[in-house]
Amino acid sequence: MFILFYFFSFVLGLALGSFINCLIYRIKNKLPTFLTRSQCLECNKNLLIRDNIPILGYLFLKGRCRYCRAKIPPRYLYAELLSGLLVVLLFYLNGFHNVFSQTIFFEPNIIESIKFLLTIIFYLTAFVTLVTVFIYDYKFFLIPNKIVFPGILLFTALNLLADLLQSISNDKFSYAFIIFGFVAAIFFSLVYLFQYLITQGKGVGFGDIKYAFLLGLIFKQQTYFLFLISCGLGLLYALYLLIVKRESLKAKIPMGSIFSLAGFVMLLLHDQKFFSGIQAYLWIPDPFYLC
């Protein structure tokens, strides 16, 4: 069961990596995000469904377009592999295989199974959001609204659904997810709005403020961890630019990428003793773990 669970987790990660590659390309080139076929970057012919199968499609085509024989950049293959491995690591560190066995097989329960499914959706949606913004902001110094605004709507809906499930499970009305989410979102975005106003837009961009609001909805009352990790990573990156790259103090820093990396660290280590211990010490309820 352990091996089977993580095999499917890896396959799922491969598919998400392929989706992220496609999403970044389409947003950058102002193409429809969904409901259109993938095309060759050179001849613009629609790809067959089997050509889009992660890893296998690239290997069967030997890294070249079926029609024009143009070379497919190997970075797409590497991104899919890395995504698959990261999803496996994400699930493993958070013990999802144990919860899966418990809720689906040993003690099956409809509500608990739905909670587990929602938790998986929450983590994977956060994963796609963080990775997409990390890459996009690092390459183009821009956080796309096509990610932020749908993300705000989606995580608001997920928080509402989480509260609904908690209310049904406990026979008591619950509103913690949505309340904590919006409080953290407003506070986190106001911090960077203040910095934006003080520096007249030189310290952070307005996209960072919108992204901070989205991250508040995701991490809720653990957003202060995210803030501290982001500050540390931002300082390290600034020192790297100054010392290694010999950049000036006016060098741009992709804060969206810094936020995303800090957020991914949070997702990976959420179930580890460091965060859970501090969380218990401060009497902080779990921000996004239903099961």
Backbone shape: globular
**Which whole number gives the mean pLDDT?**
86
Proportion of helical residues:
55-70%
Helix/strand-derived category reads mainly alpha
| DSSP summary: helix tally | 11
What is the ordering of alpha helices and beta strands?
HHHHHHHHHHH
**How large, in whole angstroms, is the Cα Rg?**
20 Å
Tally of discrete structural domains: 2
Largest sheet: none
- Contiguous uncertain segments of 5+ residues: 274-291
N- and C-termini, Cα separation = 19 Å
Q: Name the beta content range.
A: under 5%
What is the strand tally?
A: 0
Task: Walk me through this protein's architecture.
With 291 residues, this protein is mostly helical. It has two domains: 10-82, no CATH class; 109-291, no CATH class. Helix content is 69%, strand content 0%. The chain is built from eleven helices and no strands. It has helices at 2-28, 56-60, 75-93, 96-106, 110-140, 145-170, 176-199, 206-219, 223-243, 255-269, 273-281. The longest helix is centred in the middle third of the chain and has 31 residues, at 110-140. It is globular. The model is unreliable at 274-291 (pLDDT under 50).
